[in-house]
Design the sequence.
């Protein structure tokens, strides 16, 4: 595809992409149920994402059962998941005797998910397989919260033991990682390293498109800066993204502003 038919929108981990010809759903008032994110009574562990099998949500619930035995005031909050997926997790939590200590919020808006994340003592990414790095890893790095993540390729392309607690994808190892709750000094050290890594390596300008794109222009959404760091051998992708960046939106007859 010729470069003049491409327009790159850099992904933002904090803001939704907004198009001028669509209603801005992020501006809609939240339902009363969504506005309530109560403060934690004890240490809160939060997972936010889909409940697909590769995400390891059931692994996390089993690991948390071990944590709950030595920290009965700890709480696990699972943010996301379709209703049928939540219904599949609840019986497991019940069988493990977790009761109200394991909470499922269901699918919520990005703003509400962020509030749950901000209320956490520890964030978790319990994936059990995969090679693509999830975008939320960068948000977790930037959060200033300690992160426990499984030691699989999806994570280790970006994460090291200096910026998070890396563990094997099994319940005992994940439970041991979650014992970071008992070492606030080390948790704070790694969270600080993670924040510095994010600020030094990954942030970039977010460009918001105010006008509809010209007819016939394809939209390429991506995190080119991240991709270039993770896959430096991808010369074709890097060249394409550089071409799109250098041309700029004005070359395509549209307006933009930096947000």
Sequence:
């Amino acid at each position: 595809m010729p470069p003049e038919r491409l327009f790159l929108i850099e992904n933002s981990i904090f803001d939704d992409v907004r198009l001028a010809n669509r209603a801005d759903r992020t501006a809609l008032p939240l339902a009363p149920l969504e506005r309530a994110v109560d403060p934690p009574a004890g240490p809160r562990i939060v997972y936010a994402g889909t409940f697909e099998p590769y995400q390891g949500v059931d692994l996390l619930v089993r690991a948390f059962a071990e944590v709950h035995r030595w920290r009965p005031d700890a709480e696990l909050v699972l943010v996301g998941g379709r209703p049928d997926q939540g219904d599949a997790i609840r019986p497991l939590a019940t069988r493990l005797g977790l009761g109200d200590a394991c909470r499922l919020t269901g699918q919520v808006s990005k703003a509400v998910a962020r509030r749950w994340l901000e209320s956490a003592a520890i964030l978790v990414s319990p994936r059990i397989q995969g090679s693509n790095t999830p975008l939320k890893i960068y948000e977790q790095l930037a959060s200033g919260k300690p992160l426990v993540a499984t030691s699989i390729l999806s994570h280790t392309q970006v994460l090291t033991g200096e910026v998070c607690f890396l563990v094997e994808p099994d319940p005992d190892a994940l439970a041991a990682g979650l014992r970071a709750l008992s070492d606030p000094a080390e948790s704070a050290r790694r969270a600080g390293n993670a924040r510095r890594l994010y600020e030094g390596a990954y942030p970039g300008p977010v460009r918001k498109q105010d006008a509809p794109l010209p007819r016939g222009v394809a939209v390429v959404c991506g995190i080119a800066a991240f991709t270039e760091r993770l896959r430096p051998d991808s010369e074709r992708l890097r060249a394409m993204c550089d071409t799109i960046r250098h041309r700029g939106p004005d070359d395509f007859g549209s307006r933009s502003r930096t947000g």
